[in-house]
Amino acid sequence: MAAGSKLKALRNRCNITVRNVEQASGRIADAKGDKRFRISNGWLAQLENGISEPSICKLFTLSVIYHADFRDLARLYNVDLDEIEKYESIANPHATQLRPVAQADNEPTTHNLARSSTGLVPHLTTGNTSVAVERQNIRYGYVGLSDYTMYPLIRPGALVEIDLSQNKLQNTPWHNEFERPVFFVELREGYACGWCELQGNQLLIIPHHSSPATVRRFTYPREAELVGRVVAYNTRCVDPGPQTIEAARSLAMKKLRQ
User: Of the chain's two ends, which shows fewer C-beta atoms within 10 Å, N or C?
Assistant: First the structure.
């Protein structure tokens, strides 16, 4: 069923006429002092016949009059507000990003999460209460395809598990690169994943010694905050094709120089 027909069916279920909608919308527009929220009966007829599409203001008015969730009405026009963060990684694929907490039936995998951005991905939840309590401080992050900070220990495209309770730098002894704490860091304009050191009020994000990336400095905590410690990761054991990896490296280096 087309979006207009669904809106008409919704109006009929509410047992109101197009004239009722026009009158109610006028009251809303007057209250807001904005005529964009007003809906004429002629325009509503065009909408229900699929000739027109609603503006955000008119869709708001309809959600009020029909006692419907604005998000549900927006979905009729293939606009899902819950997908905003999902498409941020598509619109700006090389930026490090946080991902929303959401329920997942299965643990996310690199196969279904492959994208160029680094960020958090949906929280693993299950019907098992003990498991949910145990994992309430766990989030998942995705290392973007242009992020070579921890290469080759954690390759671009890796899925990382983050313990949110471990969000402070401590002088914990470590003996090799596998024991050295890796942190997921929130920056002003994105996120990062790497080894960290604190020098005064400067947080250093330190790359792996085999990585082409360089050390980055941020004022702490004004410009950088620790999301949590990376406690596990799922990474590739081989690199993608040479052309792909070289292009991603070049982009990563260009961004670091900016």
Answer: C
Domain, as residue range, for 23: 3-79
Contacting residues for 102 by C-beta, under 8 A, at least 6 apart: 122, 123
Whether 8 and 130 map to the same domain: the answer is: no
Q: For the chain, how are helix, strand and coil distributed in percent, rounded to 5?
A: 35, 20, 45
**Same domain membership, residue 92 and residue 57:** no
DSSP 3-state of 93: coil
Largest CA distance in the chain: 76
Q: How do the pLDDT tens digits run along the chain, 258 residues long?
A: 799 999 999 999 999 999 999 999 999 999 999 999 999 999 999 999 999 999 999 999 999 999 999 999 999 999 998 887 777 767 765 655 555 554 333 444 444 444 555 666 655 443 433 334 446 789 988 888 888 999 999 998 888 899 999 999 988 889 999 999 999 999 988 899 999 999 999 999 999 999 999 999 999 999 999 999 999 998 888 876 655 556 555 655 565 555
Q: Does the predicted TM-score (pTM) go above 0.70?
A: no
203 shares its domain with 75: no
